[in-house]
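Minutes, structural biology subgroup

Action item carried over from last meeting: produce the structure token record for AMP-dependent synthetase (Rhodosalinus halophilus). EB confirmed the sequence was re-checked against the source entry. Recorded below for completeness.
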Amino acid sequence: MLGRAATYEALRAGFRWALPGRLNMARQALDNWAETAPERLAVLDLSEGREAISYGRLRERTDGLAAAFAAQGVGPGDRVGVLRSQDAWTLAAHLAAWKLGAISIPLFKLFGREALVMRLSDAGAKLVVADRDPPEALRAWEGAVLVPEEARLSTTPVAVADTGPEDPAVIIYTSGTTGSPKGALHGHRVLTGHLPGVEMSHDFLGQEDDVLWTPADWAWIGGLFDVAMPGLALGVPVVAARRPKFTPEDAVNIVREGSVRNVFFPPTSLRMLKAADVALPGLRSVASGGEPLGAEMLDWGRRALGVTINEFYGQTECNMVASSCGALFEPRPGSIGKPVPGHEVAVIDTEGRPAEGEGDVAIRRGSASMMLGYWNRPEATAGKFRGDWMLTGDRGMWEEGYLRFLGREDDVITSAGYRIGPAEIEDCLITHPAVASAGVVGKPDPMRTEIVVAFVVLRDGVTDDAALAEELREYVKDRVARHSYPREITFVPSLPMTVTGKVLRRDLRARATEEEA
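Output recorded by EB:
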């Protein structure tokens, strides 16, 4: 654990990574507690009714799934997809894979057919764990599917595989600007790497009566490793509450019913709460990450939530590396916070040296939450680094010890807390028989940060109209994901291109902004 200190400087100076030679996240997040305090509350599942699940019961579910995986031929290094939302079985599925030394793959239920099959095929998944209502897209994948609620599971305990910190444990896919989404492969040290930032962003998580929840789906690193697994590892009960979409009314009910004290709210959720004039009394800490919050939102948080919202920073490849911590220092509006102990964050120039003023935000090798590399992408992995520094793709600068985020170098769209790669949407659009070419960008939006906007060139003889625009939206929803479809489609005669044939997205972004004005 992070420990306590009177000042940020003392906290940072007193911290050192202490990774053991043998480490398995199933033992770290589950078995250690199940053996010493089996009746301790692990998960309060509000997805269907109310079910309190102890560490002992969660281990029974995990061991039952691990035995079922093994019966399907899953062993060390094999990949297991987890296509579920927030519930206790989701956690058990990941933990079961790790117990066997296998590699879990969190998958989003809103993925379309092509997006889902691409990830399963790229990872070479042997098995997918789904719920009773699997998405239609899963039918396109020709592989084994296990529904825990419908399986006859063994009650025999399963031993934890002998793994080390660097042994692969989880592949989390992240979208970029070019090509297919890449799988960030993490080792068993990734949970340990998240703990200092999670504790810091919740003003030292793990205090008496702490209960942790997030509306963020557990298919993403923010839900799985900023909330669910750290909560289990720290002995903090985790609330699971599967909902079709976030609403302020649901947030009020979940916080009340679950006696929630600690929440990770994505910025879009905070904006929706603010717009609905919702108050959430009784919270001890609120963390937020994804994009910077302004002074107005921080002020509102103090009034309506009764806390200082702690912002944090990271990405799928290396997460929870900077954070605010109201218990130690005042936040600075517009900044991300300060480096989390154990992570060396820098702003560097093109030579990898500390930059004067603006530069590339980078993280030095050695962070425990840093990926092992991109799955089967050695060239992409090498391109992510500049010497000993992992490039985030973001621009930033230091202001009196605070890291200020200035913008992204790439074209990733941040919408409602999701990072969306335009290339995947463009590749989907151009497979439609009416489309000749497409360019996708983000357009500023007061509620979602950005919305996805598509500029589409049609094939000769095709007439553009509202019906075709709606057809293209549904086409992307079905094949990529329901959270990343273009909310606006503009038909254009041509796209701005470089001399090498690449779409000039900056020109499209400027046009999208001008049209809004």
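Discussion: The domain at 413-516 is CATH 3.30.300.30 (GMP Synthetase; Chain A, domain 3).
Next step: EB to file the record with the rest of the batch.
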